Amino acid sequence: MNPESGESGSAGLAGRCLLQDVQRFEDVEQKHERIRQLLKVQQADAVLLQDAASLAWFTAGVDLSRSQAERCQVSIFVTEDARLFATNSVDAVQLFEREAFGLGFQLKQREWHQPHAELVADLCRSRRVLSDSGVDGTVLAGREIQGLRQTLTSLEVERLRRLSRVLVHAVEVTAVGIRRGRTEADVAGEAGHRLLRRTVWPVRLQVAADGRNGRYRHWGFGDDPIRDSVVISCVARRWGLHVGVTRTVSLGPPASRLQQAHAQAVLMHATGMYFSKSGECLSDVWARVQRIYEKFGLTDEWRQSDQAELLGYRLSDHQVTPRSELRLGSPQALFWHPSVDQAMCGDTVLTGERVECLTSSSKWPGLLVQVRGVPVTCAGILQIPCSGAEREVESRFEDLVNELDEGRSGGAEGLGSSWEVFSEGS
After folding, report:
1. Which residues on neighbouring strands pair with residue 201, listed in sequence order?
2. In terms of DSSP bridges, do strands 83-88 and 106-110 run parallel, antiparallel, or are they unpaired?
3. Whose CA is closest to 346, among 227, 179, 208?
4. Fewer CB under 10 Å: which end of the chain, C or N?
């Protein structure tokens, strides 16, 4: 099938044609080649993908997790020469007309009331099949398949950058509108709405007011009113890919306890980001971060909460711990979010010879940290003026609000599917 022709899957759309995404097609071809190499090494006939992360990865962005039933209803069966969806007659229409149009997939389907397991069993019969689920009759190869996802493709890097801009914009615009008396849930609802209207899914959303996260490091949000300060942290998903960011707001001058804790947290944050380079072993990166904790007398602070994880097609593909043996590749996405007392920092970086901070912001107030003589910019505390006496602060705050308003069109760029439907002859 010609990937640009739009012939496959359009029979039911009389008088209309679909525009196919050639970049996605090439990305799927690249991943199919990785599967071929795995089949060769493992001397297997096929790979069966059932995990949502695997489905999104191999299809370059199919995300059925928002409408999927709890049990698996869509599988992908990949051989050396072919790739096909095994699904039901309900999901098949959406897959071939919206989610994976023109990506070179074949289809094997049954009625929605017929067991999906029987369809999968028919495909796997008399074959040596690797799978990410270990379903009956297949060889569990979850780690090997996850390994194929570790190195990001150029399309995935481009998408992470786009998703990061939308996420940062949503969180920062929400943050500047915070006032005393608003509840954590209200702020979470606004941030979530700003993401959902861009077809971005807020996977993990934390809004912790007035130091609550000092005791509850994994606090979500509640109906408590905000008095003096709030930390907003969000991990968002689009095309199956994840990005995380954290921002801190103070209503009026920040309390000395928050200010001191934040100043300490950015030291660990900057260290972790700076050393997230390709070729580095995560245990070595962690050791450098831990030494900063110890240098400032915070010996046990890191034990209070997790510090970072590799992001990709899961909320956490690998958690960074003192014993992490994983060696960073290039490129990979790593979300650092160290915390000290009630302060928490959070940014997603892209690993490589030079580390790229995907969620940096030129608009948000920043703190410059020197790591081995290299300046690393971390997000500071945004002070929202609460009295007329804070004229200088009020002026800077108004400038920030204006900049965010001017950037609305760029920060809120559309993230819809790359396919479009056009009237014939248009």
Report:
1. 237
2. parallel
3. 208
4. C
Domains and CATH numbers, the chain: 16-149 (3.40.350.10), 154-411 (3.90.230.10)
C-alpha closest to that of 44 among 126, 155, 104: 126
**CA distance linking residue 213 with residue 46, whole number of Å:** 47
- Using alpha carbons, select from 182, 249, 163 the residue that is nearest to residue 221: 182
The 10s digit of each residue's pLDDT in 302-318 is 999 999 999 999 999 99
The pLDDT tens digits for 362-375 are 899 999 999 999 99
- By C-alpha distance, which of 408, 414, 413 is closest to 172? 408
Helix (H, G, I), strand (E, B) or coil at 24: helix
Report the b/e string of 23-41 with b at 16+ CB within 10 A.
Answer: ebbbbbeebbebbeebbee
Which amino acid would we find at residue 117?
A: A
Tell me the C-alpha distance between 350 and 47, whole Å.
Answer: 29
CA-nearest of 76, 72, 94 to 85 is: 76
Separation between Cα atoms, residue 322 and residue 283, nearest integer Å: 5
Give me the half-sphere count of Cα atoms (radius 13 Å) on the Cβ side of residue 272: 33
What is the Cα–Cα distance from 248 to 380, expressed in whole angstroms? Answer: 7
Q: Tell the residue number behind the tokens 């971060």, with chain if given.
A: 289
pLDDT for 27 beyond 60: yes
